[in-house]
Design a protein that fits this description.
The protein is mainly beta and 406 residues long. It is built from three helices and 20 strands. Strands 1-2-3-7-8-9-10-12-13-14-15-16-17-18-19-20 form a 16-stranded antiparallel β-barrel. Strands 4-6 form a two-stranded parallel sheet.
């Protein structure tokens, strides 16, 4: 996401000319809408698929002012409407049942509460989520760029997410990992090292030296939900870590090898936080992430990995995730590719794999159409007496995605 301050920037931008020409001192507007029609069917009542029609719409306003001294001031505001799977708003959700044989379930409030993973917003147990339409502020911030780097203040993603290297995706909003829209309702893989989303924060990004760039962010409280992630995900029967004092950083390397026609991008990210939940079971949060992207002759391949402590102090509760993608882009606008995601959450004992094969075509600058087959499966805990029972659920089906933009 481009550098982005206050919520006032968003409202000021809405009142500006809708389609101003790009350039210093003028407001520009970006509008993008995605509609997904899918035939994914639910395999189990434990994890239901999304409705046939899903959608997402983004409105973004920005402005850039460059001064005589070389400094550039940039404003960004963005809101998004999402119609996602009703049980998985902003990727969060409650699947299955947190059985008493799971120590994490038995220890919270005498077994009456289930812990929520701060890395994903997912839990096993509690009341199922039910929300398919919502609007979220995606960004409202200001940045100052100079020869010494970029400083960003406001509602926006942090340094780890900005510098991250990741796997490519075939479609615009639907993916087998960290999806914007999830027709299967069962994707549980999120290898993005980001527990704050667009919560208010301060970020510094260094210039790029010899291909290297460093960045650090500080977020007082992780408390702002966007369309794709809810750092405060909770509900009846659930307990969250309530992260605060979140520090995150990253090191990014990017290099173009012209003679070989190869572009390389790699990153290592780290984040840490305190828990304000007031429960002894929750403790400090720590996560490491890494990613690699390679691009050559129209082919782009990438992998991203995350390991997180889940802020769990009462035993083993790590979350591990992998995302892999391979995409071929042709000169006439076609994209072919495949994606795979895998994750295991030891806190909730939830493990899942998802994949997608698809093709998309940029008909024009304003229209893109994609078709894919999405499949997600998960090993979901359910009650089984004194033993740790589970059910293997999977949802899959065909989908068509339409995206229009200005």
């Amino acid at each position: 996401m481009r550098p982005t301050i206050t919520l006032a920037a968003l409202f000021i931008g809405v009142g500006a000319p809708a389609f101003a020409q790009e350039g210093d001192g003028e407001w520009t507007t970006k509008v993008q809408a995605t509609l997904v029609a899918n035939g994914v069917e639910s395999d189990s009542a434990v994890a239901t698929a999304a409705d046939v029609l899903m959608g997402s719409a983004l409105l973004e306003v920005s402005r850039s002012d460059t001064f005589d001294n070389g400094l550039t001031l940039e404003w960004l505001g963005a809101v998004r409407y999402d119609r996602d799977a009703r049980t998985r708003p902003a990727f969060s959700g409650a699947l299955g049942t947190c059985a008493p044989v799971n120590p994490a379930c038995a220890s919270l409030a005498g077994g009456t509460l289930s812990p929520v993973s701060p890395a994903t917003g997912l839990a096993v147990g509690g009341a199922p989520f039910d929300e398919k339409n919502f609007v979220a502020v995606e960004a409202a911030s200001v940045s100052l760029s100079s020869p010494w780097g970029d400083a960003v203040l406001g509602y926006d993603v942090g340094a780890a997410a900005r510098l991250d290297a990741r796997a490519p995706t075939v479609l615009t909003r639907v993916s087998a990992f960290s999806p914007g829209l999830d027709p299967t309702g069962m994707v549980v893989t999120r290898a993005r090292n980001d527990v704050t989303g667009a919560s208010p924060k301060a970020t510094y990004l260094s210039p790029r030296w010899l291909g290297l760039r460093l960045g650090v962010s500080y977020t007082p409280e992780a408390n702002h939900r966007t369309a794709d992630f809810d750092p405060e995900a909770s509900g009846p029967g659930l307990a969250s870590a309530d992260l605060e004092n979140v520090w995150e950083g990253g090191v990014s390397f990017a290099r173009q090898f012209a003679e070989q026609g190869l572009r390389v991008r790699a990153a290592v990210t780290y984040s840490s936080a305190d828990s304000a939940a007031g429960r002894p079971e929750f403790g400090g949060y720590e996560a490491w992430g890494a990613g690699l992207e390679l691009e050559h002759d129209g082919w782009t391949g990438g992998v991203r990995w995350l390991t997180s402590s889940n802020a769990w102090a009462a035993g083993s509760g790590d979350y591990d995730a992998w995302e892999i993608g391979l995409v071929k882009k042709t000169e006439d606008g076609w994209r072919f590719g495949a994606e795979v995601g895998w994750s295991e959450d030891k806190l909730s004992r939830l493990e899942g794999t998802s994949w997608l094969i698809g093709v998309s075509r940029e008909i024009s600058h304003n229209l893109e159409v994609g078709v894919g087959w999405a499949s997600s499966g998960a090993d979901i805990p359910i009650p089984a007496g004194l033993s740790p029972g589970h059910t293997n659920a999977s949802n899959d089906g065909l989908l068509v995605e339409f995206t229009v933009r200005n």
